[in-house]
Each structure stands twice: as structure tokens, then as C-alpha cells.
């Protein structure tokens, strides 16, 4: 009985998903053509296959973006609780920033952010 509200939430969410798919199937376009099925690339005709391999460099930059993005997300709760934590929070945040900067300068030295 404790989890009844969660069950209701999942049922409502699932119902909305099923309803969205059904409405899309009913009201969606019915006349596919070669032009409509072509991938859109800024008005240009597509060249080559969409199944092309990306270099590892692309994934490294993406992972670095996620790391630095999450770093900024950790500062929000720190800023909210700063008055309660006092000087301790300042030194912890400074230590965190220094560690992240060490990693950043390491990746700069390795040349991960250089596009070749």
C-alpha cells in the first residue's frame, strides 16, 4: 500500500506514452515519399551513408563536456548551503576546482582538445 502512488504514477505515464503513440499513428502522415523519407541536412542532399564511424576523439570531447558540466552542477547545492557550511565549504570547493583544473591541464597537454 506504501507504493500505490508510485504505481499510479507509472500507470499514468505509461498511458500517456501509449496515447501519444496511438494519436501519432492516427493523425500522422500517410503518404511517405522519397523526399519525405530522406534525412534532412540543411537543405543539401545527403552524401554517403549515415552509418559512418566517428573518431574516438569525438567521444573524448563529449565525455569531457559531461565531466565539466557535472562539475558545475555540484556547485549549486554548495552555493545553497554555503552559509551553513562556512569556510569549510570554501576550501572544499577550492580543492575540487584545483583537482578539476589539474585534469583539464592534463588533457590540454595530451592534445585531446586539438582537432586534427
Secondary structure: elements and pairs:
Layout: H1 4-27, H2 34-37, H3 56-80, H4 82-85, H5 87-110
Pfam family, one: Oxidored_q4
Keywords: Cell membrane, Membrane, NAD, Quinone, Translocase, Transmembrane, Transmembrane helix, Transport
Subunit structure: NDH-1 is composed of 15 different subunits. Subunits NuoA, H, J, K, L, M, N constitute the membrane sector of the complex.
Characterize the structure shown.
The protein has 116 residues and is an all-alpha fold. The chain has a single domain (1-110), classed as Methane Monooxygenase Hydroxylase, Chain G, domain 1 (Up-down Bundle). 70% of the residues lie in helices and 0% in strands. The protein has five helices and no strands. It has helices spanning 4-27, 34-37, 56-80, 82-85, 87-110. The longest helix is centred in the middle third of the chain and has 25 residues, at 56-80. It catalyses: a quinone + NADH + 5 H(+)(in) = a quinol + NAD(+) + 4 H(+)(out). Its EC number is 7.1.1.-. This is NADH-quinone oxidoreductase subunit A. The chain crosses the membrane at residues 6-28, 58-79, 85-107.
CATH superfamily: NADH:ubiquinone/plastoquinone oxidoreductase, chain 3
The CATH topology is Methane Monooxygenase Hydroxylase, Chain G, domain 1
CATH architecture: Up-down Bundle
Low-pLDDT segments: none
* Quaternary structure classification: single chain
Main location: membrane
EC number: 7.1.1.-
Transmembrane segments: 6-28, 58-79, 85-107
Family: Belongs to the complex I subunit 3 family.
Amino acid at each position: 500500500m506504501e507504493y500505490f502512488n508510485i504505481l499510479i504514477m507509472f500507470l499514468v505515464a505509461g498511458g500517456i506514452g501509449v496515447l501519444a503513440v496511438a494519436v501519432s499513428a492516427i493523425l500522422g502522415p500517410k503518404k511517405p515519399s522519397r523526399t519525405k523519407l530522406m534525412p534532412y541536412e540543411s537543405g543539401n542532399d545527403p552524401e554517403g551513408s549515415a552509418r559512418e564511424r566517428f573518431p574516438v576523439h569525438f567521444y573524448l570531447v563529449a565525455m569531457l563536456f559531461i565531466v565539466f558540466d557535472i562539475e558545475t552542477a555540484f556547485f549549486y547545492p554548495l552555493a545553497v548551503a554555503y552559509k551553513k557550511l562556512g569556510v569549510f565549504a570554501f576550501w572544499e570547493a577550492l580543492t575540487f576546482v584545483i583537482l578539476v583544473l589539474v585534469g583539464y591541464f592534463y588533457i590540454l597537454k595530451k592534445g585531446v582538445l586539438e582537432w586534427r
